[in-house]
Structures are given as C-alpha cells and as structure tokens.
Amino acid sequence: MSAVTGTRPAVLEGERIPFLRHVRIELRKTVDTRASAWLLIAIAAITVGATVLPLFLSSDGSGLDWASFVLFASSGWSFLLPFIGVLSATSEWTQRTALSTFTLEPRRTVVNLAKLVASLILGIAMVAATYAAGAVVNVIGIAFFDGSGSWALDGGVVLGYLGTMAIYVMLGVGLGLLLLNTPLAIVAFVVLPMLVSVLTLIPAMEDIVPWIDLNGASLPLVDGSLTGTEWAHLATAFLLWCALPMCLGLYRTSRREVA
Amino acid sequence: MIEANNLTKRYGGHTAVDRVSFTAKPYRVTGFLGPNGAGKSTTMRMLVGLARPDEGEARILGANFAGIPNPGRHVGVLLDASATHKGRTGRETLSLAAITMGLGAGSVDRALDRVGLSKKEAARRTGGYSLGMRQRLGIAQALLADPAVLILDEPANGLDPSGIRWMRGIVRDFARDGGTVLLSSHLLGEVEAVADDIVIMGSGRVLAQGTRESLTQNGSLEDAYFAATGDDAREEGAA
Q: Which of A223, B87, B135, B225 is deepest in the core (most CB within 10 A)?
C-alpha cells in the first residue's frame, strides 16, 4: 500500500480542537480530582482564615479596613496558588494521563498553554474572591469590632496583586513543565527563590541579587510604586524565573516520549 | 488503514524497534504478536505520535497522526489501561475525553453501556478499579467517537474469561463494520482467536507476517510463532 499521493486524506479536513475548549478542560481538571479539589479547599480555607486574622490582632479597631483584610488574605493564597499550576503541569506525567491527553491532542504545547491560561483564570478568580471575602469581613469589622471600615481601594494595588499572582502562577507552571515531578517542582518553587534571597547576605552578591531575586523584585508591585530600576529588576527576575523555565518546559514536553 | 513503513526507534545503542513495516487493513483485525519487550508498544506509540521514530514513518487513514486535527474522532487508542488519574472517576475520565473531542453529552453513557460499566462503577474513582474494569473503561474511551481505526495494546490483560470473550466480540464487530483494528498481545491464543492478519515481532523486528491462514498452513500458529521466534533466539545465543 503506497501512501496517498496527490489527494489529501479526508481525516485532515476536520476542525482543530479550539484553544478555549482546552482551557475549559484544564479548568475542569483542577476540580475533578481529590488532590486538586482539596488544594482549592485548602487555599479557600487559608484565605478566609487570613482575612479574619486582623479582627483579632487589632485591639482598638485601627487597621480594620478593606485594604488590610485583602492584604492579609493575599498572603494566604499567594503561597498556595502556584501549586495549582505545578500540579496541572506535572500530574499529566505522574498520573500518566499524558498518554490519553496527547493522543487526543498531539499539539502538546497548545495543551500546556491552556494549562497556563486556566491557572491564570483561577488566579484572577482568587484575587476577586479575596476582595469579596475582604468586603464581607470589613462589614463584620464595622459591625462588631469597631473597625474604621474604610472602603478605599487603590487601582494600582489591585493591578499589583494581579501581577504578583500572574508571576507566581507562571513560576509554578514553568517549573512543573520543566521538572515534570510534583515534589521536585514544589521544592524548587519554595526553596529556589528563598536561596536567592539568602544570597543577599553575601557582600559580593549584593549588586547582582536585586536582578535575580523574584521575591524582592515583585514586592514593589503590590505597593504600586515601581520605579524605573525596579521595573528592570522585575523584568530580569521574570525572564530568569518565569520565561526561561516555561520555554525550556514547553520544549521538553513537546519532544519527550510519552510512555 | 494503518501503514507502518520502516519504523525504527533507538534508545542509546539499543535498537528497540528495527525497520518495522506492516499494513493493517479495514474490515480486518490485525494481531500484533510477540513476547514482552519485542517492541510492540514502542511501535504503537510511534503510530500515534507519542514517540518519534528515528527512521521511517507511520500513516493512519493516509495521514500522519499528529497532523490529524481531531485525531480521537478517527482513531480510538488504548495503550495502557492503568494510565488514568487515580483520583478521577471513570465517568469523569470519559467526560474529559468526550469534551476534548467535541462529542455530545450522550456519548459517555452510550460508551459506558457498551463496555458494561454500571452507573455506580462509573461514579467510583479509577484508583479503586480492577485491571479488568480499567480495560473496559479504556475500551470505552477508544470507542467514544465511533472511530474508523482502533489501536489496542494488550487489551486482554486483566480481563476474566467472559471479559475476554466480550472484548473479542467488540473487536470483531468493529472490523465487520469496516473498521481497522490493530491489537497487540503476548498471548498466542488471544491473537489466534481474533486476528485475521498477524504480525509476529521479536527483538524489535518483524519476524513473520501474513494472514492467519497463510501462517498456519503448515501447522498451528504456535508452530509458526516458534519457527519465527525460535530461530531468532538461537541467533541471539550464538552472537
């Protein structure tokens, strides 16, 4: 049997699977297993816990306003949210579902980018939920804790939260795709940025660290107060920690044998 | 129609699949027979784009698998029934595949029905499934979109006798209706019972191939198999 020459095989005539359908699938995968559902529940629980914390820390009702509740809440999810990205990237390989996923859609990079977009959508939802939770607690603060209850909202800070979220979600997905091993990626995600922060203690590294320290470089984002040099610090740290692992990870997963 | 042309895969210095060529035709069940480690699974992975051939090429329905826009609609694949997320239910596993392929909501129920998994079983997480249940789930996924081609790696593994009988029926009906089936097994009897055409593999190479009739005209399939693989073993021993 020789290959079909001249005529185009009929199977090539169909429609490609739309990207948004892949995003929908990847979002669904973040809630349809026990591990991923528990992770979301844990994030929600920690976020709620962190949101109410100021109520009990303040003795005179000062600092009980919307912005403070959101600040505390964000410290809750910002630590755990990237794990969703890690899991999304690694579980295909650790659970071996890649076998089915990539026979249904051989364009592996499309699937991986859908994972990134789905994780970012979850992140945006998380930021929105944080503001909602903060608002509820603010009402409680006004009613029962003598809080000042200010509703002042700074647009720059909201963008800062969204930016920080996006950076850490990309870090999670990127390290996940690069390492394809859940515990290893989580350890890398937690430990590597810390190690860089520790480097600041070495005098010889003093000048270099701000350019590679993602934690330090992304802090001014939330203040909404980035200066020119700080933007440059953030850009280099972003390239090193988010863009580079992501590109290497996409390349690795696109070529790797699925067994 | 599946066409493998000179497929070759090397890992380091080891050649796992060595210039494998065969054709699986519509209306026929093609049995891929050989001991474990013969290169059957690696060949199947190359057919569906999960492994890159170092040489040669494969075509399914005249096309390179990775170039088919929505390949699940045309090619049903089951390479390893255990490769499901343990924390996901059977029904959800099928739903994800159905949504990916753009199938209607009824397709999952029909597929579950077809492989004899009850609603209750489908609602359980696959981590608690027996291997037989996983095979049924995997076959359900392969059949979801009513494809034209079925590629099944060791589908009889873990099935009880009635399950094996059922699986043979599915495969025969599929071919009778014009489908192309490629099914691998390391069990002689399994291939003999269901295959119209047989490809015997050993040590990464095709040792013999032909219709079941042509391979068994001088005796049983067992004789043909050992005539093919036995020679191979002696060569290896002498080398």
A: B135
